[in-house]
């Protein structure tokens, strides 16, 4: 058996030309090589395959039985190899059939995926999109192994080995039900601390977050009475009670029935980024999806503007 790892695959291209032309001179012209160079390669092929392959005949060269048996499969193999290494053609979303998998928290699904969804269905109707649970510690491995195409995460915690594109900067606002008696105007810092707060704890069960860190720098603390694992539970929780919450502004804007006010404490903003692995960086389909998501966010920002926040 021939060991392909030790064989110059260019020799197989030469053999294909020789089997087609059955003449060293014409094969050399086909390959843009000199006749002596093709003759040398034919000698190497004979040694590697342990067969004369082509013998002198009355009308050029006559292939041996081994060469005849190789002709069709070799042609098919070279055509398949050529197709495999050919540059990828442009991506046509209108005719594409493809599944995409993105890792996103409920916040990112609401503020990034949702704005892109309607346009995605129109532009690429035969594609499918799966939103999978965001597990920050697994993002890099999932992307490397092909388990996800994209992930949406905060810049500060983004795996450095993944490529990234900044989507937007986000800040926190204070929200409560529309007729909340203590949110008719911006509360003082003391009033803010006395309110009963909901906190989102993605890891589950935590009662401390970025707002508490900001308050601690002033020697203050607030009353956190409810901890939930998802952002999307918060609007319904505050709409039916006197609870309040610090929510990302883009998410709060999706609930016009809530009252949104400027908090009396400044909580550090965060940047949301889109993440992907190097293996798909140049894939035209992947490039199209990334561009579509970024464009949909840009259109939403310029077209709608932000909801007014009471100060």
From TrEMBL:
<dbReference type="InterPro" id="IPR036390">
    <property type="entry name" value="WH_DNA-bd_sf"/>
</dbReference>
<keyword id="KW-0804">Transcription</keyword>
<dbReference type="InterPro" id="IPR036388">
    <property type="entry name" value="WH-like_DNA-bd_sf"/>
</dbReference>
<dbReference type="Pfam" id="PF00126">
    <property type="entry name" value="HTH_1"/>
</dbReference>
<comment type="similarity">
    <text>Belongs to the LysR transcriptional regulatory family.</text>
</comment>
<protein>
    <submittedName>
        <fullName>LysR family transcriptional regulator</fullName>
    </submittedName>
</protein>
<feature type="domain" description="HTH lysR-type">
    <location>
        <begin position="7"/>
        <end position="64"/>
    </location>
</feature>
<dbReference type="InterPro" id="IPR000847">
    <property type="entry name" value="LysR_HTH_N"/>
</dbReference>
<dbReference type="InterPro" id="IPR005119">
    <property type="entry name" value="LysR_subst-bd"/>
</dbReference>
<dbReference type="InterPro" id="IPR050389">
    <property type="entry name" value="LysR-type_TF"/>
</dbReference>
<keyword id="KW-0805">Transcription regulation</keyword>
<dbReference type="Pfam" id="PF03466">
    <property type="entry name" value="LysR_substrate"/>
</dbReference>
<keyword id="KW-0238">DNA-binding</keyword>
